[in-house]
Amino acid sequence: MNLLETKALTKHFGSLMAVNGVDFSIHKGELKSIIGPNGAGKTTFFNLLTGMFPPTDGQILFKDQNITGSTPAQVAGLGIGRSFQITSIFPELSVFDNVYIPALRYYSKEDARKRSMEILEDVDLADEAEDLAGNLSHGDKRHLDIAIALTCRSELLLLDEPTSGMPSEESARTAQLIVKLKKEHGYTIVLIEHKMDIVLAISDTITVLNFGFKLAEGTPEEIKGNEEVQRAYLGGLEAGFQEGMAARPSRSLEGKEILRLQDVNSFYGESHILHNVGLNVRNGEIVTLLGRNGAGKTTTLRTILGLTPPSSGSITFNGERVSGLAPQAVVNRGISLVPAERRVFANLTVQENLELPFFTKGIPTSEKRSQIEQAYKYFPTLERRRYNKGNKLSGGEQQMLAMARALMGRVSLVLLDEPSQGLAPIIVKNVADIIREINNRGVTILLVEQNALLALELADRVYVIDKGLIVYEGQPQTLLADRELSQRLLGV
Hints:
The structure is a single chain. It is built from 20 helices and 20 strands. With 492 residues, it is of the alpha/beta class. It has 2 domains: 2-234, P-loop containing nucleotide triphosphate hydrolases (Rossmann fold, 3-Layer(aba) Sandwich), CATH 3.40.50.300; 241-490, Rossmann fold (3-Layer(aba) Sandwich). Strands 6-7-8-3-9-10 form a 6-stranded mixed beta sheet, with helices on both faces. The chain has a 6-stranded mixed beta sheet with strand order 16-17-18-13-19-20, sandwiched between helices. A 4-stranded antiparallel beta sheet has the order 2-1-4-5, covered by helices on one side. α3 packs across α4. The chain is globular and about 70 Å long. Mean pLDDT is 87; it is low at 236-248.
């Protein structure tokens, strides 16, 4: 019997289809992983299961009971526990109290004390019960987060990237804990995880999501050999692509270096994300940063812009050190970011979205007018929609607007984060053409892109990042010529 089942589960956010008709099931005692590229809908799927988002359509069944539309408290009361990508604990409380307080919702005081200690035994934290939670190691904090998820008399445990930000040794320890919870304590587990070595080692079955659809499902061996899954992760390295890349003339750019990262380390809280990252970008280049999900690509862009300040190392732009500056100060020096989330202002028109960057830069009106006119030449669709509000645009139009807005205000380097994410193939081709045109007009580009086919076709040089470390630097043709190397660095 299926413990949990979804039928045609669907969630729209305006024009964005986050989860699209997903049929999913898991048997009691099974460990099933959900994987997929960034933006595939994995966390949104968890949010639907746990009542954080109401579905647009479809059903959720738990032990044959229809729980569609239930609140998070109701879902937890049924025995569905969940951990989060961002560790959610009370650092100023003891480890024991972090578990005991939520347990009081489901047990009497005496039983809650007993059950809390049992749970801490299960996650190997009983010896730290009286310690302050804030003093735990990062790995133990993640384990405490799992312990909290177990307090609701859990039968089904949903774990969202439990090894996020961990080094290899701690990741392996957490993987062992997950297996222990399944085999020794009988929990049914759904795991979202980006570290494919862990997924392939511990899963009974794997479900692959891509652009909100269920792309594939099967055993680890079946998924590992699935060509559709490879294309989803690698962006479609079809037969013949290597030959086409080999025939493509490479540009020899001798421009001056405008961006340099040297020994850069960045953290999210206690999660060490970037490890001594070094890269450089020369004027006029398109440089691509590739890597698996969770490798540190987006964090690299955020660190350059000052949104995630580096803890050590240096970042220079046009010979001036910008590490340590506020994001606005970095932007004013000529760097802009197109975020993967697009961040279009929903209640402003296209024209108003484009005018916003000029308010903080003191740029004359005549220059503003000419830049916006140039943006409309890049994106004729936006000119036709100039009086439409952001929430009335399609996903492709929102991406175009985010790119156009990033060009406003004397920009010489654009950081592009996943510009093809969630777009139809014909729109992706259009975006690629626009990226080339922008670059040909003198804008240097550092591109993060999950679609390796698109990224390598555009790139003059490529870096590959893995677990926060730069593991490859070179020409895109060279990377693809070595199929074994490209699969090892980028593949599932």
